[in-house]
Amino acid sequence: xxxxxxxxxxxxSNLVGAAVRSSSVRHVVLLSCAFVLRPxxxxxxxxxxxxxxxxxxxxxxxxxxxxxxxxxTIVRPTSIVDAEWTxxxxxxxxxxxxxFTGQSGKYRKFNSIGIHQGDTIAGRITREQIAxxxxxPLLHETPHNVTFxxxxxxxxxxxxxxxxxxxxxxxxxxxxxxSTPMADWVPDxxxxxxxxxxxxxxxxxxxxxxxxxxxxxxxxxxxxxxxIPHYGIVLPVRVCSACLVNMVSYQRK
Length: 253
Hints:
It is built from six helices and ten strands; from the N terminus they run αβααββαββαβββββα. It is of the alpha/beta class. The strands form four sheets. The protein has a four-stranded mixed sheet, with helices on both faces. Strand 7 and strand 8 form a beta hairpin. It is globular.
């Protein structure tokens, strides 16, 4: 079995510790994984079950990078594939598009790389495209202290289904930077009651993590949604009421 703690957490912690001690490392780029903030999804549960809680340790590895004090970029790819989706491979999407639009001579293809924040997307991306994204912050001036997810995306174009995809690296300038390190999440198995109301968990009362403080709550105590700008999360995500009040006060200041 894969020992995620040894590789994804302790290994990353040792690397960033060595980077800090060397005082010559100017930027850290970490390859993580999408779905680390979505514990209730099938992808998250399947990967943790199959690979010994790998996403839990990946999130801890991310936080080790965030706390090291060196400018960083954390890249979270969606499902990784070996080959690009060329127009020929994307021909199946033409039939669906034509059925709904009635526009002949147009097809959809994956010909761009999309970057998003907040861990809300799914999709596919090739290893070559990931490599381009990892090199971008090392070779060019890009925003520091950012985390984003990436995938191949479709665009409508005119043609006959021949040619190659365009894998131009997207613009990083719109990314929201993180001003504080993300809080470590409390492990599910250590939480026996809601952090907010104290109600015990059981099969009909599920556990939910606040994306801001990392504590475990019942659904009633964590039903609110809000962006978390200081974590670079721009879309509304699950937060507890106390964190929402703190974020509102922070934004007013």
